[in-house]
Write a structure and sequence with these properties.
Radius of gyration: 20 Å
Structural class: alpha+beta
Helix content: 25-40%
Shape: elongated
Distance between the termini: 55 Å
Number of strands: 4
Strand content: 15-25%
Number of helices: 2
Oligomer: single chain
Largest sheet: 4 strands, mixed
Amino acid sequence: MEWFAGRSTITISFPDDGINAETGVVFFIDGFGHDPELDYSTLIRRYIASRYNCLCIGVAYFGCRLMTRFSIEPGADFFAMSNAITASH
């Protein structure tokens, strides 16, 4: 479930057994630069919610998607140049 508050996204994971009088609330904040909607974050929130009988809330904070916006691929000649540099030393 997602809820949009202005520009922020809040993702909530529920316990597998549902909500009851003992259900708590936990905020799971991903490390800086990590997107809370990535598979790992989703899986860990679901695990926490079911294991500890709580609503596990993930928040998309400023800068959280910093690391997921880049696609780093070496150039076509990267390995040839790397081997040439290594061989010369």
